[in-house]
Amino acid sequence: MSDRGHLKKTAHLAEVPASWEAGPRGARPRRLLSTRTIVVYGTLFVAAAYYLLPLYVMIVTSLKGMPEIRLGNIFAPPLEITFEPWVKAWSSACTGLNCDGLSRGFWNSVMITVPSTIISIAIASINGYALSNWRFKGADIFFTILIVGAFIPYQVMLYPIVIVLREIGLYGSLSGLVIVHTIFGMPILTLLFRNYFAGLPEELFKAARVDGAGFWGIYFKIMVPMSLPIFVVAMILQVTGIWNDFLFGVVFTRPEYYPMTVQLNNIVNSVQGVKEYNVNMAATILTGAVPLLVYFVSGRLFVRGIAAGAVKG
Amino acid sequence: MTSVSVKDLRLSFGQVTVLDQLNLDIQEGEFLVLLGSSGCGKSTLLNCIAGLLDITDGQIFINGRNVTWDEPKDRGIGMVFQSYALYPQMTVEKNLSFGLKVAKMPKGEIDKRVARAAEILQIGPLLKRKPSELSGGQRQRVAIGRALVRDVDVFLFDEPLSNLDAKLRSELRVEIKRLHQSLKNTMIYVTHDQIEALTLADRIAIMKGGVIQQLADPNTIYNAPRNMFVAGFIGSPSMNFLKGEIALGAGGRPVFVTEGVSFSLDGYNAGEVLAPGRKVVLGVRPEHVKVDEPAGASGEVHKAVVDIEEPMGADNLLWLKHAGHTMAVRTAGSRRFSPGTTVRLSFDMTLASLFDAETEERI
Ligand SMILES: Nc1ncnc2c1ncn2[C@@H]1O[C@H](COP(=O)(O)OP(=O)(O)OP(=O)(O)O)[C@@H](O)[C@H]1O
Ligand SMILES: [Mg+2]
Question: ABC transporter domain location, by residue (chain B) (predicted)?
Fold first, then answer.
């Protein structure tokens, strides 16, 4: 019986090939100019242009001299490229108070951003580690308070913080602002680290305890080396957030410590003399350069860190 | 001498009590297997012994020392986890030596111990690799090595083989047994694989709902289970259970009656008097049913119909219909039966088990 079935199948196969061979084979062909591709690429192009046009205008304008700008065509490329506006924006543009450009604001921002980022990430990662792995008494309450803190609008807390800083003698100083940034970064960063550490296999933590490592040993030797992506994510969040901050910079510091964003605002809004659009554009690009650079350098790690939360490994 | 001793252990997670009033004594050099279905508290018990969970009440002794409040590293234990739990950023060598470095051991001694563990487990060529560059079996060897270098008296294993495929599992099983024979450490081994339990254990503790149901050597567990849970849990296919009652047969001897069919209980070693009328359950393992053989000493033979035949190579598994029951029977692989055949069957009462229908305890 089985023999007959076998024979029949081979016979069948021998008949068919002619019609089979004529049929499709290999990769499915794609037409280059179908309606679908036109719509897809068209939409993408429009969206990209929409986002890039302002940047284009800024760059072009910042490279023109004032006479050329007065001609009025903001989309025209510069006839004569000049870096004068950039130099001026950096070193000699005037605010209402002084005329040393953005450089002062830049260094202030660096002195605010670097310590704030490092301190807040250090504390938040230890918080997250303690909360996810050591489940001490009251951990849940502590965590709830921290998260509730994240939902209170900043504006509500401005004045109380001014008073506190004044009482401890740090109002108006750079270190006062660093403390404020560190505190305000805490809830979201702690949440970030807690969730990341909670996603790491619990048995690793147990193995390290059996091996005799303590609280700090496990943190530095086991947890931190496994968590580079999340540290990069935290760093990007903090650097861009603190660098772009305007409100805290205005409220908590004296004019000589104003961060770059505030300095930029003061240059652009300065009422003396003519409006130097080219200098303003250059100053704006300079201020945005740092977060932009951070994204370009660590964007890949950023994506990896975000994804690592979803699929642990 | 007792090596590990657990006294009146209680463990609760908030409102939920997982272990209660648990007592367990493990002898020095003994291989004890904790066996039970998922969620019965095996890992919890092991973590309590390791000191990775703070217990709610009770005491734990290791080598005669009260370690109830000690840190895991001070208990003289080494532990192997189901997920291997190797430190991903360290090489195999660093994984092995991490604990020794934490303990500030001199470098020479560390190297000696790592080399010895690598030799025993044959992972020498892998020492410079990262865990991600190892196969599952190699990773588990390294994990065992990490416990080995600690040179401890008590090894704790939490389902070390359950992430491996069947072939590797049986290979490593043999290796763990060999390791135990050469090291003679106390080993506590959690599994839900009964083959692992039966092959490795000196004694098996069968757990259900946080309670140890029976603690005995594999042979006793298999042949004289203390209750119906243990009887049904061990053995594949499971023991056949026949519901019925005790009656008086010829000569005033007790017999087991089910669905109007009676079986002599001669040869069954009952622990108590078998009063007529008592509701009981008779348990017979598939290999203790004799098929188509001449009547045994009891002289009783019953008819059954072959429903399904499952040839498995060495064995031939039959599913029989008998007096309203379906019954699994294991015969030699060389004997074949076509479905629908009527066979004669009898039970080997010396190896059967009788349980009270109410309490499900062995009689
Ligand atoms: N952290 C915890 N909080 C609350 N309940 C828990 C916790 N850990 C375990 N349990 C509960 O304790 C019981 C025993 O868990 P345990 O991990 O010991 O089971 P197990 O026997 O090891 O199971 P498995 O074979 O699946 O590993 C389970 O019912 C589980 O839900
Ligand atoms: Mg478990």
Answer: 4-234
Chain centroid to Cα B181, Å, comes to 19
DSSP state of A276: -
C-alpha B44 – ligand 1 centre gap (Å):
6
* Nearest in space to A184 (alpha carbons), one of A238, A231, A144, A139: A238
Contact in structure between B271 and B224 (CB atoms under 8 Å): no
Read off the pLDDT of each residue in B310-314 and give the average, rounded to a whole number.
Answer: 90
What is the number of domains present in chain A?
A: 2
Please give the average per-residue pLDDT across A98-103, as a whole number.
Answer: 84
Phi and psi angles of residue B308, each rounded to the nearest 5 degrees, phi first: -135, 145
Same domain membership, residue A37 and residue A111 = no
What CATH number labels B2-229? 3.40.50.300
Cα-to-centroid distance, A287 and ligand 2 (Å): 55
Q: Give chain A's radius of gyration (CA, Å).
A: 30
State the Cα–Cα distance between residues B60 and B24, nearest whole angstrom.
10
B78 to A206: CB separation less than 8 angstroms, yes or no: no
Task: Specify if A137 maps to a domain.
Answer: yes
| Distance from residue B43's CA to the centre of ligand 1 (Å) | 7
Asked if A211 has any chain B CB less than 8 Å from its own CB, the reply is yes
List chain B domain ranges.
2-229, 240-356
In this structure, the answer to whether residues A47 and A191 fall within a common structural domain is no
Q: Is the CB of B191 under 6 A from ligand 1?
A: no
Verify that A252 and A199 share a domain, yes or no. yes
Lowest model confidence (mean pLDDT) among A210-214, B179-183, B340-344: B340-344
Using alpha carbons, select from B258, B214, B253 the residue that is nearest to residue B232.
B214
Contact status of B272 with chain A (Cβ, < 8 Å) = no
- The amino acid present at B12, given as its one-letter code, is S
pLDDT at site A14: 54
Q: Which residues contact A277 (CB under 8 A, 6 or more apart)?
A: A61, A66, A69
Class of domain B240-356: mainly beta
| CA B275 – CA B141 distance, rounded (Å) | 55
For A155-203, the pLDDT digits (tens) are: 888 899 999 999 998 888 899 999 999 999 999 999 999 999 999 999 9
Q: What is the mean pLDDT of residues A40-68?
A: 91
Residue B192, ligand 1, Cβ within 6 A: yes
Percent of chain B residues past pLDDT 90, beyond the cut: 69
Domain that holds residue A296: 103-311
For residues A60 and A138, membership in a common domain is answered with no
- Whole-prediction pTM: 0.83
Percent of chain A scoring above 70 in pLDDT: 90
| Claim to verify: residue A288 and residue A186 sit in the same structural domain | yes
Both A142 and A268 in a single domain? yes
Judge whether A61 lies within some domain: yes
Residue ID of nearest Cα to ligand 1 atom 25: B38
pLDDT by residue (tens digit) across A218-239? 999 999 998 988 898 899 899 9
